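Exercise 7. Given the components listed, write out the predicted structure of the assembled complex. Treat all entries as one system.
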Amino acid sequence: MITKIKAFFKRDFIISASYKISFVLDIIVVFFQLLFWYYISLFLTKNIPLEGLNYSYFEFLIIGIAFHSFLAFFLTNLSSQIRESQVTGTLQSVLSTPISPLTFFIGTSAFGFLKTALKLFFIILFGVILFNLNLSNINFLSLIVIFFIGIISFFSIGLIISCFALVFKQDISGWTDFFLRIFNIIYYPIILFPVFIRPLLYLLPTTHYLKGIRLAIFENASISSLGTNILVLSVFAVILLPLSLWLFNYSLKVVKKKGTLVEF
Amino acid sequence: MYSIEVKNLCKDFPLPKKILDVLLFRKRKFLKVLNNVSFNLSYGEIFIIMGKNGTGKTTLLRALSNLLIPEKGTILINDKPVSKYGTDLSNILSFVNSEERSFYWRLSAYENLEFFGTLLGLKKSQLKKTILSSLRRVDLIKHKDFRFDKYSSGMKQRLSIARGFLNKPKIILLDEPTRNLDPFHAKEIRELIKRLSNSKTAIIIATNNPEDAFIGDKLSILKNHKLSSLKKIDKKNLKRISELI
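Answer.
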């Protein structure tokens, strides 16, 4: 399994490296993105209630954007990879090899995961060096726990979205991410939402993920104090992972029956 | 024991519904592609399936490689239903399609084969040697580091064949293997296929090129969704084969 994942990683690395300046451009974009949000935050700070919190609106924002990039990666990556491999015709050749669905999913995500991790690193680095992002209260253990449980949930949701791409030949992951950007606590706190929407937001794993991440980074929250967030994310992970794997296998059967595996 | 045994295979494809059909709740129509197709193949044989474009040759090969689920009928590979193999099927069966869009265009030929070779389970110690000998066989060794998008159609076709033989499968399905090739390389590929076939290999070639028929041990014509009875291949009946398809 590891050898096959490495092969995917190498493939994606070579393809990515063939677009010579894309990585440098990504880093430059990160810087300007932060600069943009910094000025927006200066403008908005007075209007967004963050009283009682241990951090500024810009710090709230910077962590929201940084960790949302992971969330978005797992939600959109599989679907866009499947869609791309349908269009380039490589899906059939890859699925014609003795590769388990799980290896395929992990393999296709491996390089993108590293790229997203590097992006997160640069966001945090620029945040600390240029914008006084305070990380002195960070609880690494809580951060790692909530981060990885979150990943399993979003990976599973991404897998469910990729089934849509497999069967209907349309990538809806961008729409899902757009929807989650609005109904999420990336850019603004939950208190800004109408009262009747707030309970609904707590039904989304994304809310618990970002809330937990911020608490672990700024409030030194321990694992036990993040109990609810970890529990909700774990429930999502335990239910969604087997469900999404089953759904993917079922979708594969559907396209084989319809004869549309190679269609795009 | 047959390598492949196909009994009464049927495949229909759903046709897209027109707006009027949706509004009037009309039932979906289906296009019949394969109708009660049956044949069997032993190891050591090369089986040629001939037919015009769109007669269902590729559909048949895709069903044999479990990339398509038929409506009716059974496909046995080594006496075991093809659907029971799961991902292990690719350890014994290889489907070489003539589709150019099955490689990564920004990788070189070598890198492409290295990727697919690893997925096919070739060990690291033998991977390089196997890839180089495969590339040598299809006359691409000098161009191994060229990116796939720089390849001509014929070179892409030959690389596709090299990939098909990479893990030395026992059953090889070739879909129009000489489609994009010039006469010289088409002859080379036919000779290569003939060389690679042995008593332990079963090969099916779907083609509409009568020249390909002569490397086969038996021939069948796919016409009107049905497979005709097997015919002995004889150089004298080249014209007859052309007429039949």
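Discussion: Chain A touches chain B through 29 residues (CB under 8 Å). Residues 2-258 of chain A form one domain.
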